[in-house]
From TrEMBL:
PANTHER family: RING FINGER PROTEIN 127, TRANSCRIPTIONAL REGULATOR OF YEAST FORM ADHERENCE 3. The lineage of its organism: Eukaryota, Fungi, Dikarya, Ascomycota, Pezizomycotina. The keyword Cell inner membrane does not apply. Keywords: Metal-binding, Zinc, Zinc-finger. This is RING-type domain-containing protein. It comes from Fonsecaea erecta.
Length: 466
């Protein structure tokens, strides 16, 4: 099945709202524009084979310091004056004597058309009624009106003169790019509106979670713990962004969909086991959080199929016309279009992280880098790095002075005054059970240091008896 059929089927499937479908790149309409471009080029005697021959000549020329082709027989440029104003034109080097194209094989019909275009320009004007501009040659005083030299020496000098140029505006080509630019502008507006809507939903959810966390009720505390578990599952799923070395960075829509399904399955398992207990309002907030992800996934898919449509239509344009527009014009369009250039998923995930996930602290963000448990009674070294007090005691006992993270010699100078009391309060308030467990483990470890391994056995027996 051709891409055009797949593209139309994807838009007609009902997955996207009507205003999205209306804003999508009109692949069929642009294909019809390409046919009109072909017809216009044929009317100028510039069929695909002729243009290919001209481009081969261009490819054989050298390049200047900026990488631009020098002394090119053919140039294809698009002047982008305004937001949706495109003026494509072909610039062809012609012989200053009779207007014939120089240094390329062309059919007799093509040569006749181009000579007619060149000769139709007046000497005093650089543009004729048809919009074809020509830089006129300067005729020497000792030449006749036709530009023919009077002797062989002067004829050789004329042959060495640089060629003049004929600019051929392409009307159908202009229609193609103006249509494409208008559609990209519509897609940019759509993305801006959808992004604003997502931002609004994320901000609203963040406000509700802040209110929940500020509440002192026992039920609110249980719901905060439930949200902490939800966000832990969500962070582990890495729905839109991967931190793994193999596929680090933004995921495509298909992989993001798979990761979202895995997150949903994990969430359903936790709810089935009664691990996540949420009230009516919290369940409504969870539904909105899931819907934010669904909407972002849908927008990501829509962005991908339109990017593919742009790439395909430009490839078809070049294949049918041989104007080589994709590598220059298409890149320019992509860079100036936020819909095509910006990574919406990455930007939205950053907002989710800042406005939602950060409200409910995650235990993984407060682990000691040495023992990978909660940094209870955290020691903040002079270098700024944080470790649990137990690990610092062990390092000082072994006379290891270098910070495990930055290798600065700051460990041996640390004392009880290095305990970060603000962090102690924060950890107690947010990870009460984990703090208790770490405190118990520290006490057992200290007892073993003083009384030996029998102390741990005695503590375990004591727990069993109790």
């Amino acid at each position: 099945m051709k891409f055009g059929q797949d593209y139309e089927a994807a838009l007609a499937r009902g997955e996207y709202p009507p205003d999205w479908v209306n804003s999508a790149i009109s692949y069929k309409k642009l294909k019809k524009c390409i046919k009109r471009v072909q017809q216009e080029l044929l009317s100028l005697g510039l069929d695909k084979e002729t243009l290919d021959a001209l481009w081969k000549h261009v490819g054989s020329k050298g390049s200047d310091a900026d990488g631009r082709v020098t002394d090119s027989l053919l140039q294809y440029t698009v002047k982008d004056g305004e937001k949706v104003s495109f003026t494509p034109k072909l610039t062809i080097v012609v012989d200053p004597r009779d207007g014939s194209p120089m240094d390329a094989w062309l059919s007799p019909d093509t040569r006749r058309i181009l000579r007619r275009l060149a000769r139709s320009s007046s000497i005093d004007s650089s543009q004729n009624q048809d919009g074809v501009s020509l830089e006129q040659p300067r005729i020497p005083n000792d030449c006749d009106k036709s530009g023919q030299s009077l002797d062989n020496k002067e004829e050789e000098q004329q042959q060495q003169q640089p060629g003049n140029t004929v600019e051929v505006p392409l009307t159908a080509d202009s229609e193609f790019f103006q249509t494409l630019r208008r559609e990209l502008a519509c897609l940019d507006d759509l993305q801006q509106a959808e992004h604003a809507r997502l931002q609004e939903e994320i901000t609203r959810l963040g406000s509700e979670l802040r209110a929940l966390r500020a509440s002192r009720s026992r039920r609110s505390k249980k719901e905060v713990e439930a949200w902490r578990k939800i966000f832990e599952l969500y962070s582990d799923a890495e729905v839109f962004l991967s931190s793994h070395e193999v596929d680090a960075g933004a995921r495509d829509a298909a992989h993001a969909q798979q990761q979202y399904q895995l997150f949903n399955q994990s969430l359903a398992t936790q709810q089935k086991n009664d691990v996540l207990k949420l009230g009516k309002e919290a369940n409504a907030a969870l539904s909105r959080f899931l819907q934010i992800n669904v909407n972002l996934l849908r927008l990501l898919k829509f962005q991908e199929i339109n990017r593919t449509a742009l790439s395909k239509i430009m490839k078809k344009f070049d294949k049918r016309t041989s104007l080589h527009a994709k590598r220059s014009v298409a890149q320019s369009l992509t860079k100036t279009s936020p819909f095509m250039a910006e990574d919406l998923a990455k930007a939205t995930c950053f907002t989710i992280s800042e406005e939602v996930l950060s409200i409910i602290p995650q235990l993984n963000d407060y682990l000691c880098p040495i023992c990978f448990t909660i940094s209870w009674r955290p020691i903040r070294l002079r270098c700024g790095h944080l470790f649990c007090i137990r690990c610092m005691v062990i390092m000082q006992r072994e006379e290891k002075d270098h910070c495990p993270l930055c290798r600065e010699g700051v460990v041996m100078e640390a004392t009880e005054s290095n305990i970060d009391k603000t962090m102690v309060k924060f950890l107690k308030a947010n990870f009460k059970d984990d703090v208790k467990e770490k405190q118990r483990q520290n006490e057992i470890a200290a007892g073993i240091d003083q009384w030996g391994a029998a102390y741990e056995h005695a503590q375990m027996q004591k727990c069993v008896i109790m």
